[in-house]
Amino acid sequence: MSPRASKAIPEGALRLVVRRIIEAPPERLFRAWTEPEQLMKWWGPPPARCPQAEVDLRVGGKYRIANAFPDGSVIWISGEFESISPPRELIYSWRLEGSEGGTERVTVRFKGSGNRTEVVVIHERIVSTETRDRHEKGWNGCLDGLARYASARP
Known about the structure:
154 residues; alpha+beta; Alpha-D-Glucose-1,6-Bisphosphate, Chain A, domain 4; disordered N terminus
């Protein structure tokens, strides 16, 4: 059994699904999600912004994304890529650095149809309804930012 498969999913863990149709092809959105210089331009639910992002886009590669807030605080999200299928899907672990919580999992799917893409974010292994609600607000804010970024780029 692999180390990843042996990690127990907390009993009662919750799952969140957020969807958005964005006017852009999946290839463009996949690059925006995985290239640090693009990620920093749209990531972060308001009022957070992303001043730094690191992405080692390979299975087993790590990522770190900074969420900076107006009060000067910074929250780092980090994890490891579990599966990469450009431009259709990303699966990666998710953890707030310094938190006591366990490792969550995020799957992002890019379902293209012409110049439109349905972006589906599936966030799993969430330990509480409060955390799930914060994630839902955060993902909706991030997808708003991705849609604005995609519409502003040729």
